[in-house]
Design a protein that fits this description.
2 copies of one chain form a homodimer. In chain A, 66% of the residues lie in helices and 0% in strands. With 203 residues, chain A is an all-alpha fold. The first copy, chain A, has a domain at 56-186: Orthogonal Bundle (Tetracycline Repressor, domain 2), CATH 1.10.357.
């Protein structure tokens, strides 16, 4: 199962994805997921608060990695650079888990409840990255803006990566997406109907 | 009630906010909301699919305005500029509805179910703005990136606006936020561990 999720969490997520693909998310029970993975229902609930949560075991692992990398990054780099490097490096596990990630995303994309949960997970990651930067001495709004921009670039790049027919290089794709976002945003700045003062954000 | 929401939708949202502030979201029923606004339960369900939806009547109005403005913008401006101008202009109704918006946000922020619904609404707006740009001849990924960046700047600027003690000028605040995002993102670009080719995005 590669490095995508330690202990019982990874196998439980894999079992959940397999069952959801076969029967549909609504039809799958926690008991069935636990049984297929070789664990008890009790073990399931020791790891996950509810059924939808099991489909985000891998995301939680990714979340923790990103936050750890941001927290341990050298403070000599710009906050945005620390965030970008964290998303690049935490995504190193994507290729070896590509098929599992693709199946899992298929289940999420076809279930409104899971799509909503995914948006909440991404928002939680943004908040955690912001906190990590603040703890490392970055001031707001730079901390929040770097976290928001990094998470947005991750979301867009991941959707591209997972839907690509050939496997794209994750760090290159992430960096390209962030770069593209900068190009697009800058195309509006200074062309607006409102005159903009010098940026108040300090990096 | 200003121009924040036409017909029965505005009054129903106002009634819902007032009742939620008084009793808590979980305790408020659709019947109570309809009664307070002077409408029947049937009228409520003609306008809203479920209880949480009533708290997004104003947002739906804003959504429709943004999409209309993007759709009717001159194609001579860059896609990002069209999106930015739309968010600026659609926010013209914020000041006259400031108190209602603040109360409504208080209800949403204190209810996980509503926070999740809000994230879905914002994602739906991003998708609608992307479609509007594509229909007006903008290519992807520029359409999607402009929509994502615009929606992100809106989300950040709106959170700042609604929490400000003195009332900030919405167009200036939105433009400043977008500008700040551009500054922050560009601070990482070209400093990465991965060499980035020329941006593939065409504006």
């Amino acid at each position: 199962m590669g490095r995508w999720g330690p202990d019982a969490r990874g196998p439980l997520e894999q079992a959940a994805v397999a069952l959801c693909l076969k029967h549909g998310y609504a039809q799958v029970t926690v008991v069935a997921i636990a049984q297929r993975a070789g664990f008890s229902e009790r073990t399931f609930y020791r790891h996950f608060a509810d059924k939808p949560e099991v489909l985000f075991a891998g995301f939680q692992y990714f979340h923790d990695n990103v936050v750890h990398l941001v927290t341990s990054a050298a403070t000599s780099a710009a906050p945005m650079e620390r965030v970008a490097a964290a998303f690049e490096q935490a995504g190193a596990v994507f290729p070896e888990n590509a098929e599992q990630l693709r199946q899992r995303q298929g289940v999420i994309d076809s279930t409104p409840e899971l799509r909503a949960r995914e948006l909440s997970k991404v928002a939680t990651l943004t908040a955690a990255v912001t906190r990590a930067l603040l703890q490392r001495g970055v001031a707001d709004p730079a901390a929040m803006l770097s976290a928001e921009a990094g998470t947005l670039a991750f979301r867009i790049a991941f959707a591209t990566w997972i839907n690509a027919t050939s496997q794209e290089d994750w760090p290159r794709l992430f960096r390209q997406t962030l770069d593209d976002l900068g190009v697009v945003i800058t195309s509006a700045v200074s062309h607006g109907t409102v005159s903009v003062k010098r940026p108040r954000v300090s990096i």
